[in-house]
Each structure stands twice: as structure tokens, then as C-alpha cells.
Amino acid sequence: MVEQPKYQPYERILLKLSGEVFGGDKGTGFDFAVIDHLAQQIKHIWSLGTAVALVVGGGNIFRGARAGPPGMDRVSADHMGMLGTVINAICLQDALERQGLETRVLSAIEMRAVTEPYIKRRAERHLEKRRIVIFAAGTGNPYFTTDTAAALRASEIGAQVLIKATKVDGIYDKDPKTHADAQRFTHISYNDVLQRNLQVMDGTAIAFCRENSIPILVVSLSDDQGLLRGVQGEPVGTYVGPGAGRRAADA
């Protein structure tokens, strides 16, 4: 009898959620059934003993400069996008607390009436107390995406992995929606992602993770077990780290 490999759950993770996730199939507004299901998945992760922190996007509300009219000031547009992430963070906080979890929203833009200001030591203390921490408002600065905010916060809290949860089950060598022969990578290096311009995260975030040795795991939210398996250390989705790229067909 072949002994099955034993996997070890991560002790601390940073989960990055795009704003489009909150909108369900439409990608805009709020699909509360989807959000509640997501909260249940996060609860399962937390029950493993894993410390969970999240960075949320705001694309279901406003996509920064890409959503504004021609000529709109980039700083104004980015600030609107950052405020959208605060709305999503509060929405997710409510869903998680209805699951019986204790949470805190920490915003890079101070708004003490509804969130706590982001302070690194405060975030670490909440995680030590088994609270789920939701980081909002990106980095608090225009011109930086929430992907970059996720890489920054993952480094600051000492996360063992940055998990990017998307609607696709990993990183492909070409767009799987338009190419039937697209192949998924099981493992790919930071440099390959940047050189191939695969755009799973923005280049600044990938480079930051490379410089700070933060592995990235890309998994699908469509698979109920995908996220949970990834947190448990099982091979799933695409792992971005040192080494050469390897496609699923070669694994």
C-alpha cells in the first residue's frame, strides 16, 4: 500500500480577493449568496488553526483610473477605488461575523468611525488573538494596486504565502477562454511571470514578492475545495516562486 503524502497547513496566510468576486457572475455590485459562501470557506480555513488576513479590491464598485471618464484625474480616481475597498471590507466583515468569527478591518486611509487605522503591530496582535484581519484602502496611496498592497501586507505580517483567489484555476501559458490548447502551470518562477507578461498580478507586486521571498499561490474560488486544499499545503492551482516553470501536462 502506497503511503499518502502528508501536508502541513500554513500557519499564517494573506488572501487577496478582487472586488469582482463580491459581484458574483456579474462582477459588479454585491452577490450576497456568493459573499456568504466565501465567508464559510474562510471559516473552514480559520478552523485549521491558520491565521487569516485579507486584502480586498474594489473593482465591483469602481476600478480607479480605468473606470473614470477620459481626462479624469488619476489621483481622484484611485482614491475613489480605495474607498470602494473599504465598503467591500465592511461587507465581508459582516458576513464573517455572521459565521461567528471575530474580525477587524484596518484601513490605510483613516476613518475611525467605521474602521481601525492600519498599524503593523496592531494587525499582528489581532492575528495572535485569532481574529481575522481585513486590510482596506490598498496602500493608502494612489498609483498602487491592491495586488501591491497584498504583497506589502503579506511581508509586513510575516505571511508564509500570498494566495490570489480568482475565477481561474491557476496561471496559463495563454488565455484559456480563447485558446483550447492553453496549458496551466503547476509551478512558475517570478521571473517567468514577469517576462511572459502573464498578468496574474501586476508587475510591481510580483517583483516585491520576489525580492522578499513571498511565494504566491493562485487558486480558483469556483472549486469549493481548491482554496482549502491550497491552505493545507496540497498541490493545487499554480505556485509562483523560485525555479523554472512547469506545466500541468509535464507534472
Describe the 3D structure.
The model has no long low-confidence stretch (mean pLDDT 92). This protein is α/β, with parallel strands linked by helices and 251 residues long. 35% of the residues lie in helices and 20% in strands. Strands 1, 2, 3, 4, 5, 6, 7, 8, 9, 10 and 11 form an 11-stranded mixed β-sheet that branches.
The poorly predicted ranges are none
Q: Helix count?
A: 8
SS-based structural class?
Answer: alpha/beta
Order of helices and strands: EHHEHEEHEHEEEHHEHEE
User: Helix fraction?
Assistant: 25-40%
Total strands:
11
Overall pLDDT:
92
CATH superfamily caption = Acetylglutamate kinase-like
Q: Main β-sheet: number of strands, strand sense, barrel status? A: 11 strands, mixed
Query: Could you give the distance between the termini?
Result: 22 Å
Mind telling me the CATH class? Alpha Beta
CATH topology: Carbamate kinase
CATH-derived architecture: 3-Layer(aba) Sandwich
Shape: globular
Portion of residues in beta strands equals: 15-25%
Q: What value does the Rg take, in angstroms? A: 18 Å
Task: Tell me the number of structural domains.
Answer: 1
Characteristic terms for this protein:
251 residues; alpha/beta; Carbamate kinase; eleven-stranded mixed beta sheet; 8 helices; globular
Concise structural overview:
This protein has helices at about 20, 30-45, 75-95, 120-130, 145-155, 190-195, 205-210, 225-230; strands at about 10-15, 50-55, 105, 115, 130-135, 160-165, 170, 185-190, 215-220, 240, 245. The chain is α/β, with parallel strands linked by helices and about 250 residues long.
